[in-house]
Structure formats: C-alpha cells, structure tokens
Design a protein that fits this description.
By secondary structure, the chain is of the alpha+beta class. The chain contains 8 helices and 7 strands; from the N terminus they run ββαβββββααααααα. Helix 5 packs across helix 8 and helix 6 packs across helix 8. The structure holds iron/sulfur cluster and FE2/S2 (inorganic) cluster (FES).
C-alpha cells in the first residue's frame, strides 16, 4: 500500500520545525511502523535527502525508546501497543499519517522525532531504587509477599519509561510514570525502609524538571502501552503525604513525641 506521511522535521533543538510531506510507497501491511520508516529512509538516502531521525532500541516493546505521536495519539491508534509493535495493517492504502515527536517542555526535541527523555532518568536517579546491600540470593520463601501485592507491584514494574503518559497529558505531568515506579518498589517489603523519602525525592525532582501537576484527565493511562493503572497516582499521593508526616515527626522536639 502507499501512504502520505506528514513528518515533523527539525534540524536540531534550536531550529524551527515543520511538517514535511513524504510519500511512503510499496509498504507491506506486515511491516511494523518502524520498518515502514526504514523503507522510507532508504529511499530518501538513495535520492540524496536527509533520512527521518527517529529513536529505537529493542523494537520489541520493552526499552521505551521508540515513541512518537501518530495522528495525534502517542504510540498511535492501537491500545496497549508501542510504536515499534504497531503494524501497518492497522492503516489503509492512501491514508495520510501525521508523525510528530512527543510534545512536552521537559522533553526537548533533539532532531525530527527524537526527544531528550533525560528528565525521566533524573527522576529515577533521585530515588527509583532500593539502596540495600544485595548479598547472595535469599531463600524464595524467606520474605512472604501477599499475592495481590506481588501482582500489583509486577503490573507497575511493567512501565518502560517511554514518556507517552507525559505527551498525552495536557499538563505534561509525569505522575503515571512516577506513580508506577513508586508502586513497584513501595508495595514490596524490600521497598519499605525508603518508601517515604523515595516518594518525596522523586516527586520533588518531577516538579523541578518542569512536569506539570496531575488534574485527573486520565489520558496518560489511556495511551500507556503497558496499560499502567491510574491508581498508581493515588498511591504516589498517599506516599507523598506519608513523607510529609515523616518530616513533621522528625522535626518535633523529642519530649513531645
Ligand atoms: S507509565 Fe506507561 S506511558 Fe508512562 S512512561 Fe510508563 S509505560 Fe510509558
Ligand atoms: S524500540 Fe524498544 S519499546 Fe519500541
């Protein structure tokens, strides 16, 4: 099939961007969206033109690198699907496909469809880990975890840090991402000692990086390729309140405790 792409072209972070009309010819419905871009790029290179810059790594839905906005929707029209796992059979011959980078102030466009998602890495660096001496592997039954908690932690751990939630949110909030990271650690016994300080540090870094507040629009969860539940944001807010109580208790004089 043949399609007409309207692709965001931008030389660098400081340049003015624009949508450019590029034809995608002889595209197989079995190709992935990124393979379609590969075919288009091969033709552009043969014609002596600059290929479309886009990001990817795994091409199997686990690294979070490939996200672009397709016809106004981060990761495109298929629910629960990353851009790299989207297939051309979900488009039709002659369709106009608008392809843009994720739009959010904390994600500056580096070139064409590539954005800098380093702000999410800095949120993780602020507390998205457990600072315990790992030692050797403990016995599997030494620390029992209730099945519902283990399931919820595993669901939250599915977040691949793609940033689609930020791109979909009118406030460019990273609350779903932060909520997912806090939930997958804070629901497990190993994550308890740093639960409150982790929430405090990660939320403060999210604010400092320029992400907006959550106002319950819920677009984030709707576009999330890992279908992270909006409830993780409530957990983030509860853990943040826990952090505030912890600071208040620590700052109280000893004889009033
Ligand atoms: S919560 Fe979903 S949309 Fe947001 S970064 Fe994680 S996987 Fe991507
Ligand atoms: S390239 Fe890794 S998730 Fe798409």
């Amino acid at each position: 099939m043949n399609l007409v792409l309207m692709v965001w072209r931008q030389e660098n972070q400081d340049a003015q961007g624009r949508l450019e009309r590029i034809e995608a010819k002889h595209i197989s419905p079995e190709m992935s969206f990124l393979e379609m871009l590969d075919v288009v790029n091969e033709r552009l290179i043969l014609q002596g033109q600059r290929p479309i810059a886009f990001d990817y790594d795994c091409r199997e839905g686990i690294c979070g690198m490939c996200g672009v906005v397709i016809n106004g929707i981060p990761h495109g029209p298929r629910p629960g699907t990353t851009t790299c796992q989207l297939h051309m059979r979900h488009f039709h011959d002659g369709q106009i496909v608008v392809i843009e980078p994720f739009r959010a102030k904390p994600f500056p466009v580096l070139r064409d469809l590539i954005v800098d998602r380093g702000a999410l890495d800095r949120i993780i660096a602020a507390g998205g880990y457990i600072s315990a001496a790992a030692g050797s592997a403990p016995d599997g039954n030494a620390m029992p975890v209730a099945k519902p908690k283990a399931d919820a932690a595993m669901d939250a751990a599915a977040c691949i840090g793609c940033g689609a939630c930020v791109a979909a949110c009118p406030n460019a909030s990273a609350a779903l991402f932060v909520g997912a990271k806090l939930s997958h650690l804070g629901l497990l016994p190993q994550g308890q000692p740093e639960r409150w300080t982790r929430a405090d540090a990660m939320v403060a870094t999210m604010d400092r990086e320029g992400f907006g507040p959550c106002s319950n629009v819920t677009e984030c969860s709707a576009v999330c390729p890992k279908e992270i539940d909006i409830g993780v944001i409530a957990r983030m807010n509860r853990d943040r309140i826990g952090a505030i109580f912890l600071v208040a208790r620590r700052s109280r004089p000893a004889d009033t405790m």
